[in-house]
Amino acid sequence: MPRKKASPAPRKGFIKTIVEVExxxxxxxxxxxxxxxxxxxxxTALETVGTRAVRVDAGEKVTGQAKYTxxxxxxxxxxxxxxxxxxxxxxxxxxxxxxxxxxxxxxDVIGPGDAPAKTRLFPRKVTYAGQxxxxxxxxxxxxxxxxxxxxRAKIETAPFAATFEAATAPDAPLVRSKxxxxxxxxxxxxxxxxxxxxxxADVVIEREYRTPVQLHSAIExxxxxxxxxxxxxxxxxxxxxxxxxxxQLAEGLELPQxxxxxxxxxxxxxxxxxxxxxxxxxxxxxxxxRTGRPxxxxxxxxxxxxxxxxxxxxxxxxxxxxxRNGTLTAISxxxxxxxxxxxxEGGPGQLYHELYACPNVRTEETFAYVNxxxxxxxxxxxxxxxxxxxxxxxNALAAKLGMDPLALRRRNYAKTxxxxxxxxxxxxxxxxxxxxxxxxxWDTRDSRRGPAASRAQVRRGFGMAAQIWPTGGGPPAYxxxxxxxxxxxxxxxxxxxxxxxxxxxxxxxxxxAMGARLSDVHTVIGDTGSLPYTGNSWGSxxxxxxxxxxxxxxxxxxRMLLDAAAPMLGVPLGKLETRNSTVCVRGTDRSMxxxxxTKELGDVMIxxxxxxxxxxxxxxxxxxxxxxxxxxVDTRTGVVRVVRIVxxxxxxxxxNPTLAESQLEGGIIQGLGYGMFEExxxxxxTGLQLNPDLHDYRIxxxxxxxxxxxxxxxQADAAANHTGARGLAEPPIIPTxxxxxxxxADAIGAELHEIPLTPWRVLAAAGEV
Amino acid sequence: MRLTxxxxxxxxxxxxxxxxxxxxxxxxxxxGTKFGCGHGECGACSVLVDxxxxxxxxxxxxxxxxxxxxxxxxxxxxETLAPLQRAFIAHDAxxxxxxxxxxxxxxxxxxxxxxxxxxxxIKVGMSGNLCRCGTYPKIITAIQAVARGEFAAPAR
Lengths: 769, 156
Description:
- The complex is a heterodimer of chains A (769) and B (156).
- With 769 residues, chain A is an alpha+beta fold.
- In chain A, strand 19 and strand 20 form a beta hairpin.
- The longest helix of chain A has 28 residues.
- Chain A has 3 domains: 193 residues, 2-Layer Sandwich (Aldehyde Oxidoreductase, domain 4), CATH 3.30.365.10; 168 residues, Aldehyde oxidase/xanthine dehydrogenase, molybdopterin binding domain (Aldehyde Oxidoreductase, domain 4, 2-Layer Sandwich); 307 residues, 2-Layer Sandwich (Aldehyde Oxidoreductase, domain 4), CATH 3.30.365.
- Chain A is built from 18 helices and 28 strands.
- The relative contact order of chain A is 0.14.
- Chain B is an alpha+beta fold.
- Chain B has 2 domains: 73 residues, Beta-grasp domain (Ubiquitin-like (UB roll)); 65 residues, Orthogonal Bundle (DNA polymerase, domain 1), CATH 1.10.150.120.
- Chain B has 5 helices and 5 strands.
- Chain B is globular, with a radius of gyration of 15 Å.
- At the A-B interface, helix 1 and helix 16 of A face helix 1, helix 2, helix 3, helix 4 and helix 5 of B.
């Protein structure tokens, strides 16, 4: 049979373009996919996407069958613990391991000089309390605990600088080898002319705000299990980025990436703190290499609360100028941010450029290194901090102008992106304002203001705040869809499900793109050994990055399935459609189930490939929202009770409303913790953390939970990407604390400038102490 | 020494000072019970010991000699999930799922003590179990649904 000449396959291209992660932009090479599916617009009818499909892995989670990292047990596995510094700065003089090695069950000890240089583990120079200085591994948890207790380490202490003020004072101790002010600081961003804007203002307000260090406090501590299988290192890790963890392990241990396999099936919360390999990962891998046995290393709660990342503190000096009618003429920020011994510059400034249409904006951020554990991204890094101050100042401005805070925000609504000066792909912020205000009863709040008759000292207050967060996602993200011989469908993609529901929504997307039943689709994620690359699950990027790649892979597979089915049904391709896992001939009752087609195909496997294409350059992609808070304040004790939060957010198409609501509620509760309780406390005399636990570092309990009415508005955003969905995970944490603070201010008739809103701060603001 | 775990007899030889959490997860390989803090602060390790709600990270195994221990693996009857488990699924009361086994154990005990709790009683009864994902509103909804008898009949 003569071979038909194949038409040339569609080719991919590569271009340089701008990509955005956590609000920062950079130029990178990205792929242009071979084809892009037609966007799912607001009017596209979808069967599974948009439904309240039950979380696909809920059954494993409620039965205890879901295996988290610490649940992984390998034959012959050892247990490892890291010894950490108990001083804020100094020199590690010696680690005496003899006593520890003599303990029954202790197998190995490592300290300075024992770890490969590129892991940067166990340096002699101690720069913060909690820094790893040695590690022990043993046959059991019991033996390793005894081993750690028997280690004798000597640290010569030195003066330290644990605060921004101390680190930037003349003759401050050096935190790193170079100066304490981070290179490039102060970071200045400006548009318009601030002085002219302030000169044009009828009203100017100046305020200073402070936000605390917030700890991620995932209930599952960081952990890793490492095992050498031949010349390959296999690592089970609780991580938001399996490929980034692989890259860092390969670099640290000087191995080819193909010799490192990172697996993550379930993880107990990340929130930004689990974005790569940590000391526990390297310790497990190093011990595994030295002993030839699998090793598990899991953080203690103390290690988790003192050295696994944090949201850095800020001091923000804000000046806002406005006309009498509320039109903003100038916004200025000067901010100090102590990062810890390392971290990146995710400061509060960018929000100031994006949330309102103000022609003159200037932000100046100074980042400093201090002798404390390094910051890491924490849900909406920078924006949660920035919103407390900017939204506090906007509320203060409203009070000074005698304007309703909601009316002031509507007046300064940014119709286009004021920072990048281009349209939004979609923006339903005005709808968020309107619907949340209506459900909250904002306009009739004064009728509910009176004190309860029996509790005259309890006052009620109402407040609100708004939110923006860049959520475009973007390349690279890859997916394969394979149709098995029995017509069950596997989506293969190297992403992660943090508890967000990625497995579920990706299955929903594939089901609709294939015309398949949801129950026929199985999403396989979390293994670098077998899955195509996608990036970290950070920046609310998983949905807008991976869902388009999954959809494209599914459409590619569907096209091949139809290629196979057309001759079987004896009709041209154009007559075929798919629904309910069946190929149907349009306008007739003839059909073949997917299983009938694949049975004919036998072991000939259909594998569709999908790529996330580049983002549009002519629009800005962001998620918006507004939250309204109602509180009760006991004016005698300063105790605040958050009664109710109403939240409306616009994230484009909502792939699964139930999962979206869970994200919103979770973000709001974390924001409530940020506003009400959470604050890392360092002892100024020693630099040691006074609350490295979950008792004195207090996160919200179920008893703190207010009534939450959280919902999504807006519609599918076909300009953002072809699924119409933007990111949603981080936005809800942003406006909660400022909305609560505004409500407390409303209740007591005095502004609050520092969170958390402890009873002491509330009483001080009210002039009671 | 002898424990009865989820209805089955188990002989264990704990180290001195060993906690019930270690015994259950490392010796009996029932990994549904989670380590979160080791200090009775978070509730991820909640189990029932002779019917009492217990933080397994604080309980000494040796003090549980002869006791009946229930972990999350013991809530279902064969393949049939307990009403609370079905309600947690239906109401999306698990996000990352790490605290979920402890939440389910605490909720089981709560409903045993008080079959029809008010919202405030649920909040008090469940306040020893932390959830960082913030599933609290869904947990309240799920427990209320079970109290109303909505999940009494197993789903087919």
